[in-house]
Each structure stands twice: as C-alpha cells, then as structure tokens.
Write a structure and sequence with these properties.
The protein is mainly α. 68% of the residues lie in helices and 5% in strands. The chain folds into 3 domains: 43 residues, no CATH class; 277 residues, no CATH class; 31 residues, no CATH class. It has 20 helices and 6 strands. It comes from Champsocephalus gunnari.
C-alpha cells in the first residue's frame, strides 16, 4: 500500500467504485495498464452484460402475488425438484448416459466461463480467441479420454489395429495437437494487445484445469462403482439445499463477505443434515450390486457390465460402540456397512470444504460484476453455478479412493500380461513360479519328482 500511495502521488489512479472496493493488485494492474499506451488500455474492464430473467412465464404468472424473496424461494424449489428428478432418470439409464452427461456439463461450464472472457474483451477484437479456446478444449479432452480408453478398454484396444496404434502413440499425438494450438496462439499475437492476449491464454488454461481435469476425475470415480459417483454428488446437492433452507428460515449471522447471503446457521445446519443424509443414502445403496460394483467393459459382449461379488466395503459388519454412545443409546454393537463410515468423511468434506468452491465462484463473479455465470436454469443461474462445489468434491473423492480404498487390480495386470510377447509371458511365469516356490507356496521340483 505504501508503494501505491507514492505512485498515486505522481499520477492519480482513476478507479471505478465496486462492491469489493478493489485490491492492491487490481490497482497496480490499472496503473500499469494506463501507462502501457495500448489503444484500449488494460485499465478498467468492460462490464459483462447482465443476463435476462429466464423464468418460465407460467411460473411468473403463478407466483406474481408473492414478494421477491418468496418468489425466488418457490422458483428455486420447483427447479431443484425438476433437476433431482432428472438426476434419478440418468442414474436409471446407466453409466454410459452418466458419462455423456458429465461430458455435456463439462462443455457447458467451459462455454459459460469462456463466454464471460469473450464478453469482457470482445471489443478489443482479439483474433482467434474463441477458436483457440475450443481447440485447446478438444486437445485436452482427447488426451484425458484417450488415457481412460486405454486404461479401461485395454483388451478392446489391443484387439483393433487402428486403436492399438492410436494407443501406442497417444501421448505423442496429444502433445503434437497441443503444440499446434500453441504455435497458432503465438502467430495470432497482435501488437498493442500482447498483454490482453496472454491474459486470455491464461484464462483458457485455468478454465481447462478447473473444468476438464475435474470432470476426468468424476468419470474415474464412476468406474470405481456408481456409488462413488452418486453419494458425493448427492451430498453436495443435499448440503446446498439444506444450507439454503436453514439460512432462509433461521439465518442471522453472516458467514463470509464474498457471499453475503451465506450464514453460519445455514452452514452448520447443512453440515449435520448432510452427514445424516450421507449415512442413510450409503446404507440404502450399499445393498445393491448395481451401485457398488465397478463399471467394467465385457469383452465378450462388447458392453459395460456392473456385476461382481461385493467387496468387504459393502458387507454388513458388527461394530462395538464407544462407552459414551453405549450409555446414551443402550446398544453395545451396531451393524453397518464399512462404506457408511467412509461416507462420513465424504459428507463432511462436501459440507465444510465443498462450499469454498462456491465462495471461489462468488469471488470470480464479483470480480466481473455479474450475478450468475449464465441464465440456463431459472432461479439458479448457469450450469457452472450449480457445479462450482462439485469440482472440488470430485478431486477429493479421487484422492480419497487412491489413498484409502483402491488396491492392486489383478484383472488389469492379467490384461497387460496377455498383451506381451510369448517369450515375455514365459519369463514372467518362470519368475513368478520361482518366487512362489521360494516362499513355500509351491512344492519344489525335487519334491514333485519324488
């Protein structure tokens, strides 16, 4: 701040009033931009046009007699029930449809964020911004989904010659595609707009990091079993709803300045409600193989299948209660699925850390003086407004599975062994046989001959 005061004495900085009153870094950008001599200058971002009210006319007429507060409550409630019903429908339709929905949501979120950038900077006539943004999205998706196909459909890939070639050189092809986009960006640089173009280059890559990487994690979670997809997403939805309900009826104490409508009452109410909901939902879903079995590709039928013998994680076990709970409940033991204990960690993260994804999005929207990312869903804003917390959750679940749940996968090891040459397979066979004999699991050759 001292540096800014001295610099301000030399050349006053004209800033526009905003809700956040501007940070030191923003002031520096405005000062530096004003002295850069660019035709439009980098100081003062154009405001993003406000999105129009897209509430269906039938709801506007039905709720016309209510105050704006209660009207918004009913609109959000009705649309929330509609979205939950749609969520149940896509779960019923199976894992393939779920993956397609994840891809659609990813593309829509990317489009909403990139559109904000274009709305801010379109008056500068930056060449190839949108074209390059979508090209980079294509490159990153090709890389991530190619990795997924190679990992999950290994036998199918090895069976088809074109797929085997693409799989073998997948990373090189991905890098070549990205390098092409990188060169196109460099060639598109225009004098006097260098800074803005690099701003937008960074904008695109951060968006790819936030949106595409997280959606890739969501699909990986889905392959572990649909329960790892449904329970975390449902916990975030439950926390969002219950925090809103508790805040609407009991909220008095502000939680964070970035989101003035968020209250401590809503935060705490949402936390306890989500933990209870997570335990109950996990109990119901753990009894169904359709939800707990990994999503695998059947090479004989060329279809996805969800069928297995449930692991110990999804088998009821007796747990001894601590003494203080025993005196309170009168029970000495309780029968639970082990996954229900894990669900406490998932629901706690969804309630405590998940909202920070929403706070991050709120800060982003405040920076550009917009209320919502888009007006796709009346009363809720854009798709990104509904999924801002889900992306943090997807990363946590993926890390949680890798750290505490997933072990070696024998089926994948066998698939990779079968792809080797015969001499390599024999070498591994002899090495494994010698190892097991040394450990005493197989009889020695002399014992067999005797």
């Amino acid at each position: 701040m001292t540096e800014l005061r001295h610099r301000g004495a030399e050349a006053p900085i004209q800033t526009q009033p905003s809700e956040d009153k501007g940070s030191d870094s923003e002031l520096r950008l405005e000062k530096d931009g004003a002295s850069d001599g660019e035709s439009k200058g980098d100081s003062g971002l154009p405001e993003v046009p406000a999105s129009a009210d897209d509430t269906p006319e039938v709801l506007n007429k039905a709720l016309s007699g209510l105050s704006s507060r209660w009207r918004n409550w009913w609109v959000r409630g009705i649309l929330t029930l509609a979205m939950i019903s749609f969520f149940f429908l896509i779960i019923y339709l199976g894992p393939i449809v779920l993956m397609m929905i994840v891809l659609f949501v990813q593309i829509k979120c990317f489009q909403e964020i990139i559109t904000i950038g274009y709305s801010v900077y379109h008056s500068y006539h930056l060449p190839w911004f949108r074209t390059l943004s979508w090209y980079f999205l294509l490159c990153v998706n090709y890389f991530f989904y190619g990795e997924t196909v190679t990992d999950c459909f290994f036998t199918l890939v090895q069976r088809e010659e074109p797929l085997r070639i693409l799989s073998k050189y997948h990373r090189f092809i991905s890098f070549a595609l990205y390098l092409t986009g990188f060169c196109m960006f460099v060639l598109s640089l225009v004098k006097k707009h260098y800074r803005l173009q690099f701003y937008m280059f960074g904008w695109t890559h951060v968006t790819l990091l936030i949106v595409v990487t997280q959606s890739h994690f969501i699909i990986h979670n889905l392959f572990e079993g649909m329960i790892w997809f449904i329970v975390p997403i449902s916990c975030v939805i439950c926390n969002d709803i219950m925090a809103y309900m508790f805040g609407f009826f009991f909220g008095r104490t502000p939680l964070i300045k970035l989101s003035p409508k968020k209250t401590w009452e809503g935060f705490i109410g949402g936390l306890f409600s989500t933990i209870v909901f997570g335990i109950m939902l996990s109990y119901v879903m753990s009894g169904w193989r359709y939800f707990v079995c990994p999503v695998e590709f059947n090479n004989d039928s060329n279809r996805f299948q969800v069928d297995c013998e449930p692991s110990e994680l999804f088998q009821l076990q007796d747990y001894t209660l601590p003494s203080f709970l025993e005196s309170f409940t009168g029970w000495t033991t309780v029968r639970l699925y082990p996954f229900q204990i894990h669900s406490i960690a998932l629901s706690s993260f969804a309630s405590i850390m998940g909202p920070f994804g929403g706070f991050f999005a709120s800060g982003f929207k405040r920076a550009f003086k917009i209320k919502d990312f888009a007006n796709t869903i009346p009363g809720h804003g854009g798709i990104m407004d509904r999924f801002d917390c889900q992306y943090l959750m997807a990363t946590f679940v993926n890390v949680y599975i890798a750290s505490f749940i997933r072990g070696p996968n024998p089926s994948k090891v066998i698939q990779q062994l079968l792809a080797l040459r015969i001499d390599q397979q024999l070498h591994i066979f002899n090495s494994l046989k010698a190892h097991l004999t040394e450990k005493g699991f197989l009889p020695a050759l002399e014992d067999v001959m005797a």
